[in-house]
Write a structure and sequence with these properties.
Helix 1 runs antiparallel to helix 2, helix 1 (6-27) runs parallel beside helix 7 and helix 4 runs antiparallel to helix 6. The longest helix has 32 residues, at 51-82. This protein is mainly α. Helices cover 75% and strands 0% of the residues. The protein contains 9 helices and no strands.
């Protein structure tokens, strides 16, 4: 009968999280993770094919949920624009985007900390730049949707989009950094 690896996998996951949070991806040691978990490095490879796969396993749930939140938000914005309810989106009610984003950050705080602070050497190392680009693209899509509906709005240059997106994203990331 095969050995149940569920408990080992759960402990390994926690050891990985602790190692990556403490040392970051580049300085994290597979040998140290294995030692902390009480298994051999070879046993680690039965669970994960590489250090990159370990990091990905830690951050993917937060990343996937973040993308779903972004998609839902953009869909809601486009619906409001299409139905000419833009004032309900652009008022001071943060419950449509900011509050769900903050809830998500706190739900996956360690995972977002990994993405923001500990991801150097991974495909996520430019996480802030990825978010800034997403914010810029979303803003441009929103303005294009407003144009399509004939709704007035200020003309915004690419530099202005970038500055606004950078300020917004960096302010959100400060919650995680500090």
């Amino acid at each position: 009968m095969p050995k149940d690896k569920t408990a080992t996998h759960a402990k390994l996951y926690e050891c990985m999280r602790a190692e990556f949070l403490e040392k970051g991806f580049e300085k994290a040691s597979l040998n140290n993770i294995a030692r902390q978990c009480g298994i051999t490095p070879a046993a680690v490879y039965r669970h994960y094919t590489s250090k990159e796969a370990m990091f990905e396993a830690l951050v993917k749930p937060a990343w996937d949920e973040f993308n779903k939140l972004c998609e839902r938000s953009m869909s809601a914005i486009k619906n409001e624009i299409h139905t000419d309810r833009t004032t309900t989106h652009f008022d001071d009610d943060d419950s449509k985007w900011l509050n769900p984003m903050l809830d998500l950050i706190y739900k996956y705080f360690d995972e977002f900390r990994l993405l923001v602070v500990c991801s150097k050497g991974t495909k996520y190392e430019n996480f802030a730049d990825i978010l800034i680009k997403m914010e810029e693209d979303t803003s441009k899509e929103m303005m294009a949707a407003m144009d399509a509906e004939g709704l007035p709005h200020a003309e915004i240059s690419d530099v202005q989009y970038h500055l606004a997106a950078t300020a917004y994203v960096e302010a959100m990331l400060e919650i995680i950094r500090h």
